[in-house]
Design a protein that fits this description.
Helix content: 55-70%
Mean pLDDT: 86
Strand content: under 5%
Low-confidence stretches: none
Number of strands: 0
Length: 99
């Protein structure tokens, strides 16, 4: 009797695997197809946004607050440092050998 119960359990488990394996494979194939389509769609959208000059990502709320603070500080602080070009004087006499 014990042997018969083990046999039926083994047959039921085999039937479950026989029915369940194609369903799991089908679900995985659907998931894989969806993921591939989303990947291609996001890549094409990113390429389009990049070449049209727009940002790919939207700024975070923290970034917006920091930008407002930065603009406020820049309006209050005068620009005292003026960039001047660095000029090196040319030598008045040539430094090479005389001919």
């Amino acid at each position: 009797m014990d042997l018969l119960v083990k046999l039926f359990k083994r047959i039921a488990l085999g039937a479950l695997y026989l029915v369940g394996s194609p369903l799991i494979a089908f679900a995985f194939a659907i998931f894989l197809t969806y993921g591939l389509l989303v990947f291609i769609g996001v890549a094409l959208k990113s390429i389009y946004l990049f070449f049209s000059g727009r940002g790919v990502f939207t700024p975070f709320p923290e970034d917006l607050v920091a930008h407002k603070r930065y603009q406020f500080i820049m309006k209050q602080t005068p620009n005292t440092h003026k960039a001047e070009p660095i000029v090196t004087p040319l030598p008045s006499t040539p430094t090479g050998p005389k001919s």
